[in-house]
Design a protein that fits this description.
Layout (H helix, E strand, L loop, with lengths): L3 H6 L6 H6 L32 H6 L18 H8 L1 E7 L4 E8 L22 E2 L1
Parallel strand pairs: 1-3
Antiparallel strand pairs: 1-2
Pfam families: zf-CCCH (PF00642)
GO molecular function: mRNA binding; zinc ion binding
Protein name: C3H1-type domain-containing protein
């Protein structure tokens, strides 16, 4: 027996097997649409596809594919994605007044739970070692 959510979502998404291989072992009993003529419209949340998929943005792939509720910028060049992931971070050594080391890191989205402010009133944006 289908619950309310399953009934509401019945045949609102395309069948992955139907799209990829042109057939589906469930036939007419499949809960997914086999072609646009079977596809039903569903009322989406106002937040649907309003935020970027972090997984797709960082790795270039997402397990949910077209069913992901987040934005996939599939037109972005994969080279640009890789360049964004391999950004050097320069540490500055104040004693010698020169860069002291490079560290490669993957930039993560800013999270407001973490504060980057310190008690010192330094206006420098680089991480310093004394």
């Amino acid at each position: 027996m289908l619950d309310e959510r399953q009934v509401r979502l019945y045949k609102t998404e395309m069948c992955r097997n139907w799209q990829e291989i042109g057939s589906c072992r469930y036939g007419h009993k499949c809960r997914f649409a086999h072609g646009e003529q079977e596809r039903r419209h569903v009322q989406r949340s106002p937040k649907y596809k309003t935020q970027i998929c972090k997984t797709f943005h960082l790795t270039g792939t997402c397990l949910y594919g077209v069913r992901c509720v987040f934005i996939h910028d599939e037109h972005q060049d994969s080279t640009n994605r890789l360049n964004a992931l391999a950004t050097p971070f320069v540490f500055h050594n104040e004693k010698m007044n020169m860069p002291s080391d490079f560290m490669w890191f993957t930039p993560l989205p800013f999270d407001r739970r973490y504060s980057f402010s310190s008690s010192s009133s330094s206006s420098s944006s680089a991480v310093t070692f004394t």
